[in-house]
Amino acid sequence: MGGWVLLMNCHLSTSWMPRLEYLVENLDDSKHRDFRLWLTSMPDKNFPVSILQNSVKMTLEPPSGLKQNCLGTYQSIDTDEFESCSKPHVFKKLLWGFVFFHAIVQDRRKFGPIGWNIQYAFMNEDLTVCQRQLKMLSELYDFVPYDVLNYIGAEINYGGRVTDS
């Protein structure tokens, strides 16, 4: 049976790239015609060119603009997620703040060094972590811990990537 293999974040294993290149070059498609190898990677100068040349490439770019970015984020969130919190009214309002913040952080990249001194790779996982923490903290406390949410969202989850103040 032809299985599928997914290797995620290949850009994080630059020392393993030569081995990956060797494995891909020696793949024998006569073994099973339904076998698929999927690789995910951020752009990286160490990614083997031969793999790129012999692959079907797909890209996922974040939408351009705040409105499009926010709409795309909300479309990717499961509707059950909104209602699964014991305080959906508070959760929805505060989630909007994180969604809007995420859109701003991503949109700043198009302004080059005026937006960010260094090109940071803010991803949807950053927002997902904020969303999970928001849900957990809103259910844990009778009040909304705004200072805690602000600190862990801006300083730890997103700020943890920023290396140049």
Structure notes:
- The protein is mainly α.
- It folds into 2 domains: 4-53, no CATH class; 66-161, Helicase, Ruva Protein, domain 3 (Orthogonal Bundle), CATH 1.10.8.720.
- It is built from 7 helices and 2 strands.
- α5 runs antiparallel to α6.
- The radius of gyration is 20 Å and the shape is globular.
- The termini are far apart.
Topology:
Layout: E1 4-7, H1 17-25, E2 36-39, H2 49-53, H3 66-76, H4 79-83, H5 88-107, H6 124-140, H7 146-158
Parallel strand pairs: 1-2
Helix pairs in contact: 3-5, 5-6, 6-7
Give the class from helix and strand content and strand pairing.
Answer: mainly alpha
Give the averaged pLDDT, no decimals. 85
What is the H level of CATH, i.e. the homologous superfamily of the largest domain? Answer: Region D6 of dynein motor
Our measurement of the CA-to-CA distance between the termini, rounded to an integer number of angstroms, reads 52 Å
Strand content: under 5%
Q: Order of helices and strands, N to C?
A: EHEHHHHHH
CATH topology of the largest domain, by name, is: Helicase, Ruva Protein, domain 3
Biggest sheet character: 2 strands, parallel
Helix content: 40-55%
Q: Which shape, going by the Cα principal axes?
A: globular
Top CATH class of the largest domain: Mainly Alpha
Number of strands: 2
What's the architecture of the largest domain, going by CATH? Orthogonal Bundle
Oligomer: single chain
Strand order of the largest sheet: 1-2
